[in-house]
């Protein structure tokens, strides 16, 4: 399916012909290669049909004004009281998800006929948009008619979920409540940016997305309430649990994968068949990707599938071999520890290709964080179900204590930014994929192969660590982030960063921290935000909770709000010099700004003059500018390579 999406017609034709030939050649021998060849051919056909017959016709509506029926699926706020809706829109008989603003819909489920101006989405993550089925975005200019949301059989489950959220919010407070809602119910919208960043650094971010572990724990609590003597009732409830949980947790690709696998496991016991993890996983992936091909591009789905493969297949096999080496006297004590670590480490290794591809690195603490957090999550999940059913507020105490311990673990590991191994060099994900393949071969082979491949995997991992450290040590570059109103240049050398902010700096904390994480910086030597307003100063404070900041150059307003930081007030019109390179901030109305690198903030009505070596701006639309101008929003690969040397930081007029 990846071949069909990225490869183009010629590549797909060659691969399809090879797959068909392999199927014909091996059919007589009834070899397993036949199944692989047919699966390869089927994936190419399904994805090609999806792109040609569904995606391309819908994308042709970009730039057009249409009248269409919609159903509001999700409502979110994007700032200043503006609502954004994810709607299902009917375009020439094809239903597609469209992200729109405008209109005024109070509840999800509302149906309406609207007039909307459509365009292709401008997103920092186009693949994830397509994976979510969002092929267009737009603005509703007129609402012709509306109809109230219809009640359905899923309404009681949604009310139960709402009640659980209310119970947790009423009995658990602060960041513990944020963790409880995200880890137990997948409601991560309330997570603070600092806590979200710590979850990524310590390798525990997957706990905030509903996956197989949520299903397993939730099902264990529900089924545990049924007597073992009522075996048939347990089996029936187990089968019904999968579709009910799908509605309860929300339909996402990773949840769908978990639901299908859980349903296969439940049906296996009813028809007296053995449930096998690898077969169930492959069948679940095949079913989901056949009916929803775009799901294969979803990062959460890929992490979920590879995580189950790593933990439930590779990790279990590796644990059996390692546990066989434990002396008999120590088996009772060490077997659970070895099994837990093996499963967690193999899950991290098998998901590392996606992690490196999407997030430019892996967390070295992911395996340990998973082992420590899983028991706390299990205790909290059981108490949450009982709290909702029995309404005994005392049951919130174990949840509060468990989430407090979870937060301490996340803070402890997440504050060590060096825990994140940056692997942003070209084709790093291929190196991670080779490591995953070698570990898989080791787990499936005999003991001799286990040791041979195990040593090879250890050497590969060590080489990856050393290569990552070498690349980070040689780094000296400028990366950019921002939007149409404010921007930032992140100057990275070795493991330190200098941040220059153009404009107010509102909302840049998360993106600056992400750039630092993805490109190997663990602290900020200096942040210069000369024009910071109240919200911009709060963004700097938020950034200080994500990483260490040695010094801040800003104005009197920021100095008053950032008393806990080392703030120096600078004169109006100041510029920043780093190793002789002068950075300046400008608005589109400013003419002939003189500096080495100028960051423009605001919307352009006409092109200003600039003698800067690099003039950088952020816009969703490409504009006609001179050669030295760069639209960093459209050109996501744009960065400036610097000569490596000692950072000399100064404020100049």
Which blocks of ≥5 consecutive residues have pLDDT under 50?
none
Separation of termini? 56 Å
Q: Indicate the overall shape.
A: globular
**% residues in beta strands:** 15-25%
Give the helix level as a range of percent. Answer: 40-55%
Question: Mind summarizing the main beta sheet?
Answer: 8 strands, mixed
Tell me the number of strands.
Answer: 21
The total count of helices amounts to 20
What value does the Rg take, in angstroms?
A: 27 Å
Q: Based on the structure, what is the oligomeric state of the protein chains?
A: single chain
Structural class: alpha/beta
Rounded average pLDDT: 85
Summarize the structure.
The protein is an alpha/beta fold. It contains 20 helices and 21 strands.
